[in-house]
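Researcher: Let's continue the batch. This sequence belongs to Guanine deaminase, and it's 443 residues. Same format as the previous ones, please.
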Amino acid sequence: MTLQAHCAAVLHYTASSSADLSSTHAFQPHYFPDGALAIDTDSGRVVACGDAESVLANYPGIEIKTYDNALIMPGMIDTHIHYPQVDVIASYGEQLLDWLNNYTFPAEQAFADEQYAAATADFFLDELARNGTTTALVFGTVHPQSVDAFFSASHQRNMRMICGKVMMDRNAPHALCDTADSSLTQSRELIERWHGKGRQQYAVTPRFAITSTREQLEVAGQLLKEYPTVTLQTHLAENLDEIAFVEELFPERASYLDVYDYYGLLGPRSVFAHGVHLTDTDYQRLSESGSHLAFCPTSNLFLGSGLFRLHKQPHPVSVGLASDVGGGTSMSMLQTLSEAYKICQLNGTSLSAHEAFYRVTQGNAQVLGLDHCIGSFNSGNEADFIVLDLNATPLMQRRQSTCHTIEERLFALMVLGDDRAIAATFVAGQCLYRKVSNKELSN
Ligand code: GUN
Ligand code: ZN
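Model: Same format as before. Here are the structure tokens for Guanine deaminase:
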């Protein structure tokens, strides 16, 4: 064992009930103002977490790393993001369907080239690390080589990632379409190659009901039966024109969600992005099937999709937080929380700082079925953590100086913070990113 103690304020959350992520009281904060996170850099796992004095007393001789004005937290988790869309983030003036046709589909065609995909995956993963995100549920493109490139890059960095090849066989440019048969074969090959290799996991990824035939949705259901430990990711009820199109394409189904339900795509390993416009019956089916929604605030505002109901659900559905880049406008989960807070304000509810930081760590780990290994500092967990600089900008420094409680500090951090607030990012005990300070630059 090679032990290291990372010393600063330390904060993490544990869940009181893994069943109820819709409840704002389902978590317990653990805050140590003079804390230490002890890790074993050989195994890449957490050894202990608590008050520095007691942690250091229990491990005499442990190597000590100290950070000033810092907060150590579990690495943040993003439950829905598209790595090929770093090329279309911040594209002007459209709602969902036009945005897909005019910006996204043209850009995704470049990922037929594996070298382009590999270079983009490197860029994307470095950006995630720079933003303090250590795990994400990620869309590739229709090209299997886009997923090979992604997993090669994330495996090399030892990041815990979930990714899948997009399945789409209609209503998209020919160059981006597969078939029901080829999507079955290619998804299977990718699952066999990557699922469970190191920290990599596969997600069956039908893009959304508009771009899949009945035959292809059947294939998606078949893959989930064949491989019960893979994730399912897709989009659901994001935009009113999208919903109308789905109703035209599947007149035999009761709702957009019912299309996925009919083909066996609901369940505890399923993450549906958006769900902005759902009926009470839809909430009920999501709830009783144990499915998850991914709330994508910056995307919902940017594409004008609507206001997600985080706290006002007619039936309790588990909800993750997500950036949805490139419909979303920031890879920072801090900025994602800031926009989530504002959407809750418009819905007449309030997202507290503790709920917010719980959701982007332990909560999102639960959504992805990974809370047994990431999302908190329980002993034995994988040591994915970030060091946050609470004084990253002059304004943040000034505002922090007026804060009295950890709740106030966290709230200012999520509203004002972004990539500048990430001082360092560690995965499995190894430093993947460290911000170069102004002081170091001038030396
Ligand atoms: N629905 C289908 N595809 C997409 C996508 O790429 N982004 C978003 N935001 N919604 C989608
Ligand atoms: Zn998306």
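Researcher: Any comment?
Model: The first strand starts at residue 3 and ends at 15.
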